[in-house]
Amino acid sequence: MTEPIEKQENEEKEQEDKKQDALTQHILRAAGLSSDDLMSFQYVFRDAASNLCMRLGNYTSLKFTTDVQSLDTLKANQITQAIGTEALLIYFNSDHWGDDVIFVLDATLVELATEVFFGASEPMVTNRNGRPFSPVECKVGATFGKLLAYALDGVFGIGDGSLLIFKQTCKAQEFNAETFNQSQMFSCTLGVKCGEVETRVNILMPRSCHRPIQEAVTRALRTPAKRTDPLWAKRLKQEVSRSRVHIEAFIQQGSMTLNELSTLKVGQILPLPANAVKKIKLRSGNKSLYKCSLGKIGTSFSIRVTNPIDEEEEMIDELVHV
Predict the structure, then answer these.
(1) Across all residues in the chain, what is the average pLDDT?
(2) Could you point out which of 37, 90, 153, 286 has its C-alpha 20 to 30 Å from the C-alpha of 260?
(3) Could you report how far apart the first and last alpha carbons of the chain are, in Å?
């Protein structure tokens, strides 16, 4: 008797997960992104990684290298897995991104940073065997987190340190998944290497950060000279040049009542406005981009792009003519 009930509960959970996945994709598309587009941000985070290495150079003569290992969208259970049990969590408040940002510093990274910040000539990491973080290690971890926060601010903010405001430091064992209010997060894992020691830091960002990140990318493309990495704009433009999007031109017929729509039949002819050929719009992903007019080149139909569409003006026109 319990098996059919459990099966039904599992099916309901799968359906709910599918709905959440569909909702997530819808949110990303509404922000101008798809899940595939997240990977295109790796060049942006690499710029932040380069910025971090430059800042670490003020604390040690040893050379650090960093690179993007992965970009993912994590669900609630995956967030807990990403945090683990042997890590130091650095919390930052971000009004611009809509919620808290968490840096998950691997235990090896905390020990490495402590060693080099205190003048070690060669990085050496020992087996912790579950040893808790000392107050000094927590302080060094917070300093490392602030350096990373400034690096991110240099890419996604305006460079004044206001993007991420330090909040608190805590150990992974103190993380409470039940009281955590974010069901999904955007994750960027940076690999960190110094000498023979390799470790990582995981940047967990609220789902609402996608739109601000996209806006930051747009700003950076307009002002590439201000970036810390001179190759950054070139790489981004290469990504943009390779990205393909579907476009469509459409004529707005007007409006119908639901009753008229329900009685439409195959073969029925619908009249178009007299100025329909001058009322064509070009859109991509359900977002109207340009006003166009219809014409012909030889035997082929063509459209001439006339003006970009002002969404606010369009909305006012629709309200006036309803």
Answers:
(1) 80
(2) 286
(3) 56
What was the pLDDT predicted at 181?
86
Residue 265 lies in a domain: no
* pTM higher than 0.90: no
Residue 32: which of 309, 308, 285, 243 has the closest Cα? Answer: 285
Question: Which band of pLDDT confidence, cut at 50, 70 and 90, is reported for residue 5?
Answer: low
Assigned token pair, 88: 């130091």
Closest by CA to 278, choosing from 286, 290, 268, is 290
Examine the domain organization and report whether 2 and 111 are in the same domain.
Answer: no
Cβ atoms of residues 43 and 239 within 8 Å: yes
Nearest to 91, CA basis, from 182, 180, 164, 140: 164
Structure-derived torsion over alpha carbons of residues 177, 183, 188, 191, reported in degrees to the nearest 10: 20
Q: Is residue 142 part of a domain?
A: yes
In contact, 254 and 261? CB cutoff 8 Å: no
Q: What is the span of the domain harbouring residue 16? A: 1-30
